[in-house]
Amino acid sequence: MNKCFFVFAGIIALTMVFLAGCGGDDGGGGEAAVSSEIVIGLSLPTQREERWVRDRDTMIAEAERQGIDLRVAVADADMAQQASQVENLLAQGVQVLILAPHDALAATSLVEEAAADGVPVISYDRLILSDMVDVYLSFDNERVGELQGEFITSLVPSGNYIVMSGAPTDNNAALFKRGAMKYIQPLADSGDINIVTERAVDNWLPENALNIVENALTANNNQVDAILAPNDGTAGGSIQALSAQGLAGEVPITGQDAELSGVRRIVEGTQSMTIFKDTRELGTAAIQAAITLAQGGSVDTNSVVEGVPSLLLTPHIITADNTDLLIDSGYLSHSQIYGD
Ligand code: BGC
After folding, report:
1. Which among 70, 193, 255, 266 has most CB atoms closer than 10 A?
2. Which of 49, 232, 260, 312 for mutating ligand 1's site (highest number of atoms within 8 Å of CB)?
3. Ligand 1 centre from 196 Cα, in Å?
4. In which band, very low, low, confident or very high, does the pLDDT at 5 lie, cut at 50, 70 and 90?
5. Rounded Cα distance, 193 and 45, in Å
6. Nearest Cα to 228, choosing from 219, 218, 220, 216?
7. Which atom of ligand 1 lies nearest, measured to the CA of 45?
8. Quick check: CB of 126 below 6 Å from ligand 1?
């Protein structure tokens, strides 16, 4: 009886392997059919900044191209929401998790849960502060800050500075600031630069940046010469505060993300620069890395961040003089930036 059962089970198993093999040959392009068995989970922290919409769209398109099943969850800058979404993805049996954390520290428990299920984790754009992360894919974030700091200090080597950094829950915020302060701090130490306000922008919210700049302007009788804003969203809030005092375009200010609104402000002269990080490249790399991990391979990296093997892409500075970099790469079109 038992013997019969095993023979029968064996035949069923062989048939399944055979059918799976046939499935692999269906559809002509072997790659797509083989990877159709792969299920990947993607958890993003927000869609508030335009860049995160691109990250999501790129990954969905690349997953489709590769024929894999991508399950997407987006939290509204809320860690509790992101945690339950990730738990849900794990319950769905995803084989790899791509996780861009809202909170670098709080997300460590999610990495542990994934590891307990044998699911490798790709920390996406923002580092999760856990040594159990399998690979980190991002841009050279300290370099982002260096580009901002170098730019603003060469334009304004002395005077009153407002120095803002991003959300304290985001590891990138510390890296951006560290890079920028390499240029600002020595001039503050020598007394050339006077930092009148130094604040983190909670949750990266533009309205929080607006309040910080508004208060700094009031406290200093509008005597502010330069602003370090960590991204285009916070630059936008700051420029609103400047504008209310008739100072938009008078005070050099940094940004990051090459958001359409940011680039338009650069062209009209109210924002001084932004940073172009091609999130299409990052999204594509993440899907490819997830497939590699699902197949048991190891991902190519070029760096190590906090002990985690990392692939860091190169950020580029954008000013009014080189918007062609955005146009030529198809990131934004000429008519989007300049109108028709
Ligand atoms: C990203 C920036 C983004 C910011 C706010 C950072 O982690 O690297 O591109 O502007 O988060 O979402």
Report:
1. 255
2. 49
3. 25
4. very low
5. 35
6. 216
7. 12
8. yes
In whole angstroms, what is the distance from residue 300 CA to residue 124 CA? 15
Strands (E), the chain: 39-44, 69-74, 96-99, 121-124, 135-139, 159-165, 193-200, 226-228, 274-276, 303-305, 308-313, 316-318
- Nearest CA residue ID for atom 9, ligand 1: 257
Ligand 1: distance of its center to the CA of 59 in Å? 17
134 close to ligand 1 (CB < 6 Angstrom): no
pLDDT of 244 strictly over 50: yes
How far is the centre of ligand 1, averaged over its atoms, from the C-alpha of 334 (Å)? 24
Residues 283 and 56: their CA atoms lie apart, in Å, by 7
Specify whether domain 142-256 bears CATH 3.40.50.2300: yes
Ligand 1 atom nearest to CA at 48 = 12
Number of C-alpha atoms within 13 angstroms, CB side, residue 70?
28
- CA–CA dist 193, 177 (Å, integer): 16
pLDDT tens readout for residues 248-282 = 999 999 999 999 999 999 999 999 999 999 999 99
Residue 331 CB less than 6 A away from ligand 1:
no
Indicate where the chain has its CATH 3.40.50.2300 domain(s).
39-139+279-313, 142-256
**pLDDT score, position 18:** 34
Residue whose token pair is 């399944």:
16
Per CATH, the homologous superfamily of domain 39-139+279-313 is: Response regulator (3.40.50.2300)
Per-residue pLDDT band for 35 (boundaries 50, 70, 90) equals: low
